[in-house]
Specification:
The complex is a heterodimer.
Chain A (H helix, E strand, L loop, with lengths): L1 E6 L5 H9 L7 E8 L6 E8 L4 H15 L4 E7 L1 E3 L4 E9 L2 H18 L2 E7 L4 E3 L4 H8 L3
Chain B lengths: L1 E5 L1 H7 L3 E4 L8 H9 L3 H6 L7 E4 L2 E2 L11 E5 L6
The chains are: A alpha+beta, B alpha+beta.
């Protein structure tokens, strides 16, 4: 089971991992990835727009695909939307499994697909009011295609 | 009638986040829809000028240029996604 959540507010990685592991003694590996707003070129803020009617369903579909490929993996994915400041967390992927290989692989898959198959768009904003939409990267498409 | 939704710079260039339109009967695919939409205003034309930078979802499922649009209730048009 891999759960998906979409929210504007922050998340607590330690609490997410603790919730996943609670009451389990069969898990030997827990992996966690947090994506953060990086202040490239003096960036002041990053706004994440999304497609309200589709985003959560798409995140759930990505989670379901990971659960199908790695049946022994437990996990959760959380993606934020709205205006975020440098240093703030954007996305959290938490996985756990009996052995580390599956937990690492599922976490990487979840991030690669979140980047390329979930309807979010990032808009960068600088202190002087300049804004710019982030361009999709071919390297992200290539990373996602590895799992095809 | 079909609800068209626009996101990110597609929304900004067209100038609205949604519009409801009656599709002409000869508009049967995503590619034909984009051609038809591009003729509606200079903003539409600018937003849709480079089709390689346009992605489409028909009834909340990612589509390709040849995806049928007949009977669709909601069609979203947006740039390649950049989340994560």
């Amino acid at each position: 089971m891999i759960a998906a959540r979409l929210q504007s507010g922050p998340f607590d990685p330690a609490a997410e991992q603790a919730a996943l592991l609670a009451g389990r003694t069969d898990l030997g590996a827990a992996v966690q990835f947090t994506g953060l707003v990086r202040a490239d070129d003096g960036l002041a803020a990053l706004t994440l727009e999304h497609y309200p009617g589709m985003t959560l369903a798409q995140m759930q579909a990505i989670a379901a695909e990971a659960a199908k490929r790695w049946p022994g993996v437990l996990g959760s994915i959380i993606h934020r939307h709205g205006r975020l400041l440098p240093g703030e967390p954007i996305v959290l992927v938490t996985t756990a499994s009996p052995h580390r290989g599956d937990a690492f692989a599922a976490a990487q898959f979840l991030m690669d697909w979140l980047k390329t198959k979930a309807p979010f768009w990032k808009k960068e904003e600088w202190a002087n009011g300049t804004t710019r939409w982030v361009e999709a990267k071919a390297s992200d498409d290539a990373a996602a295609d590895r799992w095809a | 009638m079909v609800e068209l939704l626009y996101f990110a710079w597609v929304r900004e260039q067209i100038g609205v986040d949604a519009e409801t339109v009656a599709l002409p009967a000869n508009i049967t695919s995503v590619a034909a829809l984009l051609d038809w939409l591009a003729s509606r205003s200079p903003g539409h034309a600018a937003a849709l000028a480079n089709r390689s930078r346009i992605r489409v979802a028909v009834d909340q499922a990612f589509a390709t240029p040849d995806t049928p649009v007949a009977g669709a209730r909601e069609i979203a048009i947006f740039p390649p996604v950049t989340g994560g």
